C-alpha cells in the first residue's frame, strides 16, 4: 500500500508531486527546498536553509511512520560551491551516530533562485514498523 505526504510547497500542486511517498518499508522524500510553513522561501544562509530542509524531511518521515534514523541516503544540491561546509554541518546536525550514505552536488541553479540548497532523502523502515 502506498501513502503520500504533502507539505506547504506551492509547487506540489502545480508540478503534481508529493513531499514524500511510503511504499511498504521504503520512504522517498522529494527534493526539499527551504520553504516556510507559509509557503514562502526561507531567507538565510546555506546553513539556515539546509536546517529548514532537514526539518521538513523529518516531519514528512514522521508523518509516514519514520524518523531520521531510518534514512539510508541523502542527496544535497548546492548552487554555490562554497556552501558545502555549512550544508555539511546542517547534515551532521540532522543525524546522530553513523550518518547515511550522502552525495553533495553543485548545480547551475534550482527552481527558485533564492534557494541555496535542495535535499532529497531515502529511508528504509525497520521490519517491525507498523504499516500506514
What do these coordinates show?
This protein is of the alpha+beta class. It has one domain (2-124): RutC-like (60s Ribosomal Protein L30, Chain: A). Helices cover 26% and strands 28% of the residues. It contains three helices and six strands; from the N terminus they run E-H-E-E-H-E-H-E-E. It has a six-stranded mixed sheet with strand order 1-2-3-6-4-5, covered by helices on one side. Strand 4 (71-78), helix 3 (84-94) and strand 5 (101-106) form a beta-alpha-beta unit. The model has no long low-confidence stretch (mean pLDDT 94).
Task: Write out key terms for the chains shown.
132 residues, alpha+beta, six-stranded mixed β-sheet, 3 helices
Question: In a few lines, what is going on in this structure?
Answer:
With 132 residues, the protein is an alpha+beta fold.
**How many H/I helical runs?**
3
What would the principal axes of the Cα set say about the shape? Answer: globular
Strand order of the largest sheet: 1-2-3-6-4-5
Provide the low-confidence segments as ranges.
none
How many runs of DSSP E, i.e. beta strands? 6
Indicate the mean pLDDT: 94
| Order of secondary-structure elements | EHEEHEHEE
Number of domains: 1
CATH topology: 60s Ribosomal Protein L30, Chain: A
Name the CATH homologous superfamily.
RutC-like
Strand content of the residues, in percent? Answer: 25-35%
CATH architecture: 2-Layer Sandwich
Highest CATH level, the class = Alpha Beta
Which structural class should the secondary elements be placed in?
alpha+beta
Main sheet summary: 6 strands, mixed
What Rg, in angstroms, do the CA atoms define? 14 Å
Amino acid at each position: 500500500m502506498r501513502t503520500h505526504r504533502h507539505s506547504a510547497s506551492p509547487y506540489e500542486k502545480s508540478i503534481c508531486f508529493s513531499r514524500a511517498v511510503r511504499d511498504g518499508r521504503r520512504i522517498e522524500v522529494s527534493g526539499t527546498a527551504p520553504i516556510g510553513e507559509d509557503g514562502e522561501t526561507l531567507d538565510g544562509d546555506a546553513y539556515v536553509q539546509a536546517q529548514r530542509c532537514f526539518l521538513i524531511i523529518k516531519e514528512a518521515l514522521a508523518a509516514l511512520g519514520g524518523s531520521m534514523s531510518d534514512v539510508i541516503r541523502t542527496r544535497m544540491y548546492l548552487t554555490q560551491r562554497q556552501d558545502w561546509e555549512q550544508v555539511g554541518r546542517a547534515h551532521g546536525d540532522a543525524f546522530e551516530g553513523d550518518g547515511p550514505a550522502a552525495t553533495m552536488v553543485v548545480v547551475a541553479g534550482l527552481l527558485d533562485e533564492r534557494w541555496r540548497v535542495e535535499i532529497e532523502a531515502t529511508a528504509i523502515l525497520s521490519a517491525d514498523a507498523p504499516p500506514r
